[in-house]
Amino acid sequence: MPQPIRLILALHNHQPVGNLEHVIEEAYQDSYRPFLDLFSRYESLKIALHTSGALMEWLDARHPDYVDRLAELAAAGRIEILGGVFYEPILAMIPRRDRIGQICSYTRWLQDRLGATIRGMWVPERVWEQSLASDLADARIEYTVLDDFHFKNAGLTDAQLLGHLVTEDEGRVLSVFPGSERLRYLIPFGSPQQTIDHLAAMAEQHPGAIAVFGDDGEKFGTWPETKKHVYDDGWLERFFDALVENQDWVQVTTLAESVDNVPPVGKIFLPDSSYREMTEWALPAEKLVEYERIADELKQNAHWPALRPFVRGGFWRNFQVKYPEAGEMYARMMMVSRRLEEAVHASISGDRIDSSLLDQARTELYKGQCNCAYWHGAFGGVYLPHLRNAVYRHLIAADNLLDRAAGRGETWIEAVADDFNFDARHEVQLANDQLLALITPNNGGQLVELDVRKIRHNLLATLARRPEAYHRRILDGTQQPNGECASIHDRVVLKQEDLAQRIQYDDHPRKALLDLFYDNDVTLEAVASGEAAVGGDFVDGRYEARVRRNPTRIQVQLSRQGNAYGVPLRITKGLTLDAGNSTLQIAYLLEGLPPDRPLHFAVEFNFAGMPSGVDDRYFYNTDGNHLGELGSRLELSDVLSLGLKDEWLGIDVNLKASRPTHFWTFPVETVSQSESGFELIHQSTAVLPHWFVEPDADGRWRVTMQMAIDTSRAENHVENKLVAAAT
Fold first, then answer.
1. Catalytic residue at 216?
2. Which pLDDT tens digit goes with each residue over 566-605?
3. Spatial separation of the C-alpha atoms in residues 538 and 588, rounded to whole Å
4. What is the CA angle 388-392-396, rounded to 5?
5. In this structure, which topology does domain 464-715 adopt according to CATH?
6. Rounded to an integer, what distance in angstroms lies between the CA atom of residue 531 and that of residue 453?
7. Average per-residue pLDDT for the chain
8. Exactly one of 216, 292, 540, 629 is catalytic; which is it?
9. pTM listed for this prediction
10. 364 included as an active-site residue
11. Of 3.20.110.20, 3.30.2140.20, 3.20.20.60, 3.30.56.10, which CATH number belongs to 5-267?
12. Looking at residue 534, what DSSP letter applies?
């Protein structure tokens, strides 16, 4: 019989804020419930379980019996309930005040609902920075689980990772357990006996050691092919049986029992890191390709096992650089967090502010900090529009509540210039009671955010098409056989047949008010595919900005002297917003145009959150006639307006021009990776009004456009629901 050893099974169950209802229900039916059903039968086994706050609230609302069972098993000592950050943000991504606030609020929730004593917590995605130790300790957390990769990056060996270690920051002490990467891949993808053999080998060399498995509970039924593997084919039952059969030397225990009964094996300060795969995903795409190539070559080298612990990829925060759209969400989140903090201080200082509105705003902010839409790896992440939309929905809701708390009237207007996105340059924010528009003068004078406040929707929550390291796997044509159960890190499954032909890249962001010049004979197909060359330096050039204000109207005027196909010219564009109005007035003036030839000028808009392929989301013309669903490619000539309507979302966007205009429209679709395979995702609807510009006698050309945004359908729907509820 092997020497005694302790095994901790720490599971993490999570669903993102804004995830689709049926997806969460399937995860409950396929994973959370059957796991608990089977585990309950094995009375000698124990686990540590973390359920994220967003998922726990969903479970409590729809399956309260499941939450009751968790409380019963926790009271019986079978399950140690782990706390965490309520809505599962990456700790390093949010301010310290929000870290501690989210941890403490979730601890209170778990204590009240489950009667559990919370001592340990789950660190989302195991993204670690050493300063977090003091924050966790200040939130009354005693211990957590990270990956053994963190510890090996610090120079420790497997022989030094036999239990928990202590770490410290600003005099606060925290215990940290190293979760085994080997166990992450064995469970549940190896045989149960392989795990027993691995534990036996560890026990022979290191009697009394503690082995920790810390990973997603969705591996047990929700990940592709795992429901059949884990339950139908009996893997989990065989695994639990194996643990019971070997319990004379394998003590299945909890984090709390281990901390209380086993002294720490040492002290360590951990470098900034996450689990190994996450550090790789954070690299720029071209560097990740190079990294994977070099790693594959080094695996043939005898020194690789010794070298491997010192090789890691990138830094989690650089997802904001890899995906600028994630950086935009982060900046918006920080704007709301800072505004809430200012309101709290004002309240403490004696201002009459409704504290209940601040509490509601804080909850909305916390929900908008959920991590899943801020990065991308094996899961869809930032590529999933419904997750990005959910982040903005909650952040806009928090902003609206803070407006109410500040006592703003029914109509108001303001313009603010500040460094909102932390790039050491000023952006301009135009806002009223209907809309919030964010403009970047130093990057093309682009409109990068347009919040429709009544329906809490950012029309520019878009995503550009960009190279990904995994695209080469699609282009290589390698696929995994259907029905094969493997880790999501190893799967190559194409969910559509023509994905290799659908991989396209953009050379500019998919936002609005992008100023483009094309060849006169360019085709819609070339523009839509991203292959059309843009002549000129306006799309990402620096514009001078002037803000004009009066009590009922605000305007930002943007001007740049540049060139188009070698022709020097000036573009001046203005964006105007009136109090109480949901129409943006857009004006363009081009000066210095050549008298002998026309220039092909386009202004690009991209509209997000209005999906394609559905009949109740469509284009319409001046007469209100349908022109096709929002995934249609349209080429319209010499028209004065084009509308987009989403009846489900309840929004109508109408672009009306002052002169005959050509319109191009096309869908922007990305090819991206998720746990279920590679897939095509609609990201935005591109609308490009364009003209063959011929100057007047002074070398000038003008156009004005009105973007009218109507949400009356959505507002009527809400009012009807309220009336129905009241009756």
1. yes
2. 999 999 999 999 999 999 999 999 999 999 999 999 999 9
3. 13
4. 175
5. Beta-galactosidase; Chain A, domain 5 (2.70.98)
6. 35
7. 94
8. 216
9. 0.95
10. no
11. 3.20.110.20
12. P
